Request: fold
Amino acid sequence: MSDLVRLQQNAFVIIGRAGMDIYPDPPGTKTEEVTQFFACLGGSSANIGVAINRHGGQTALVTSVADDAIGRFCLNELDKYGVDRTHVKSVGGEWRNSLAVVESRVEDHQSVIYRNGAADFQMSISDVQAVNYPAYGALITTGTVLAAEPSRSAAFHAFDLAKSAGLPLIFDLDYRPYSWLSTEDAAQTYSRAGALCDIIIGNDVEFGFMAGDYSKGLDKARELAHSTAAIVIYKMGEEGAITLTPTEEFRTGIFPVTALKPTGAGDSFMGGFIASLAVGHSLKDAVLRGSACASIVVSRVGCAPAMPTSAELEDFLSSHPGPTKI
Reply:
């Protein structure tokens, strides 16, 4: 188990994807009725980088993007949000960036994801070997990077390099079934990754998937907290979250808002939670601040552009009546 004090360095290397999100405009429009779109940076790892930067941290992304107009859009967006893209590689051929068409509506919400020939799966071992791991306080990844080769082998190699440099490993389960060839392969790979990581965040369905039984997700989270992980956060949607460590377990509520869409909450939670730990907030306060960030994002259009700044988070916390009682 790595020393979480390293988080106070407040600089993070993130491995995973950057893509384009397009939203039917104006908000509330169904995709099949749209005449115009709003485009922004997407992809869970890129979104997490933006979220942390908005709170004053520093992030660098390791991934691959397509050598085309969409890939260059992603590079420009990373620059706009201050995410270091030194280790973002452009790949030619038929590889394409992830594209998500996401409605800004809750009722009958539709999200359509295009992942065929995903460019980010071309992240290689040589790409992760080029990173100066001691310059960072932790490595963050999402489960999507593990779904295909060569990205999977590169990610596990990055885990080894980061651990050798003393960095904590932070894992957002982010299970997307459409990216995997089989549930068996996904379950084995997730279990392997989970056993290596110091902070693990996921929802009840994702932990249930890891356990091989959706009724045993919390048992799986507890097992990880009492064996290899320092912090495990078991999210339950509107029912809040359970945070587990080797020595304690506590529940927290959510900050109710009028949601505009159901997406982006997980990335915003991760960014707000890690950024809060990095500047010295207690574990419980960090969880609540992450939850507040999630609520802010679902009430706004987009994911990356919806990530709150520290000032916006403080304003929200000071004006909101507080989290639900659990």
Q: What stands out?
A: The first helix runs from residue 44 to 54. The chain has one domain: 4-115+133-319.
